[in-house]
Amino acid sequence: MASLTSVVSSGIGARAGRLLLALCACVAVLTTAAPQAQAEPQPRPRAQSQAAYLADRLRTHPVHVTDQLPREVPLSLADDFARVAKRTGVPTYVLVLPGQSAREDGLLAEVHDRLGRDGLYVLIDESEVTEARAHGVRVPAEAAATVVRYELPFDAGPLRAFERFVEVATMAPEDAEKLAAAASEAYGEDGGPADLYIGPADRRNQSFLTGIAVTGVPLSILLLVPYIRRRRRGPPPARGKKKSPAGAPLWRRLLLPTIALLTGAAIAGTAPLVFDQTRSSAAPTPSPQDMSARVERVAAALARDPIYQDPESPQRLSPSQVTRLQARIDRFARSEGGGPVYVTLMPHMPEDETAGDEDRFAAAVHAKLKKDGVYVTADPLSGYIRAFNHGLHVDSYDLLFNVPESIEYGSAKADQAEDHLLGERLDALMTFLDEVPRTEEPRYSGTPLSAPSPAKEHALPPLFATDFWPGLMVGALAALLLLMVVAAMWPVVAKAGRRLGWGPSPDSRDAAPQAPSEAYLRRVARAELRAAAAAVKRTASADDEDANPSAYTRSRNAHDRYEAAKSLAGADTSRLRDPALDPAHLLAIAVLARAARAALDGDSSPRCCAVNPLHGSAVTRQDVRVSPAGKSRRLLPVCEPCRDAAIAAPRELPGRFLTLPCGPDGTARIRYDEASRRLLSPLSKGYGELVTKVKEAAHAG
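-> structure tokens emitted (701 positions)
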């Protein structure tokens, strides 16, 4: 600056000097301010709402099929939905979305408002028509949706459900309302239509049964017919007597083996006609393009922005949260050993291309994007967060196993929040990433197992495979066992059939069927009440509170339970003979009487198994799945077998809940805790709650 001043003073004009000084000052200011401006995060555009995105999609085409359900609803079905939609005769807009993503109240109404077009709006998930609204057109939309809900089985598939919906929607409104009322009434009486498809477990049972029949029936014929014939003819001839030299004709000797052989062949030939199912679902086989569409969409978005919120799902991150997360990602990328972080807010379900596995999804996106980094999957529906390292110098083990549960699964507060507190938890995850140990070499989370093949996923195994071969051996053993039983029971062969089919004694604690009949429950209630009365009488004055408080408590509990059971059965158990006493009351009598006996025997458990009260006392409380449809779970007391089943096969546990006969003919079934105005629903809280409810009902009566 001094040299510049001397130059100015030595001959350059004053005006030119002042101009040169001003230019130098501007350059200095800009040079100083540039790093600060560069450090500030650039403003991001506001995320498009779910309804706005869907309205834009419908503006392009009246049918939008998500790419997130390729295993159940492939993208290639869009043309079929569009073809069916044309039959309505009115403008029809169809959205096929994951069921949980479309649970926002008023989604269809908001989409209609943003689209600004009148017509029939239909929302479909992976299994059925979930909602329908008519805007500006005269269509019985709600009646049609009701018919589909109650008339079709759960596994009919979304396309078939939509076809039936359109059939009803094109009827006169009066006819559609009548059909909806009839379908609803029939559903209540019959308990819903039977499933259209079977699963792999059912096919294995069919194969096993076929194998048993193929060998068991022919061998039983070969073994039992000669045995019974000999027994009916009496003892063999005395020693020394000769049988008639004229033997039986050859055709007669070959008749029985021929009949047995033809019987086995007939069973083997008829079984494929009886068990003719080939698929376990209505879902068509998706194409490779269907299976890769979502990954391609996400990878293309991540190439532009490291944070991707699924526009088909509810938006969980606010613009300010996205801006803060972007700043944290940039800071981690500049840190020592750090690098890019890619965050996807996408739902993960069994129906998607990875069968709901976040590890597979992250690996697929990494392979498509071809950029190393930490891939974070955040589910906007469940709230689960996972992080996978693909090529950075960070410890992959820490990301897989040491992320705090409060970040990965959330807390009770996060479960109750609509956004699952994903913004705060992702911020906490970035803090955890900053502290993850660095490594000298790039690390990877590993290669996940391949997803199930979509072509084989819904294809049932052949009938003569899997458990068919063990069934052959079991059939042979069963035939031999039947022969021994008949031989042992021959003196009472007339009663053998009834005895073999009688089953366990009703008052046995091991007799715990999942679907008992009313007659069975009546026998059990009578036997248990009689046994409890005898046990209570023996210990009526055996306990003293001061001498033995615990024994006194057990005795009081036993008396309370017995008195509650007795009040349900009547003073002289006369109500047990009353046909009007429903199965729920019979079960309550049996459970309370059995609990009274258990208390007197030293069992201090306050609860019984909530899956099947006939199983007896509960050993623990377990978070179990309570509905085959959806993912509803509850913390219930369970016995040891049910606890093991809840851990090993949680999807099958809803089928283990005890059901009671209902309806005029008793053929329909209902969950025990829903029967007779939910009389037995307090059982999950303990015997005391049931005793209280019985006493309150008795006072009210």
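Residues 143 and 176 are 6 Å apart (CA to CA).
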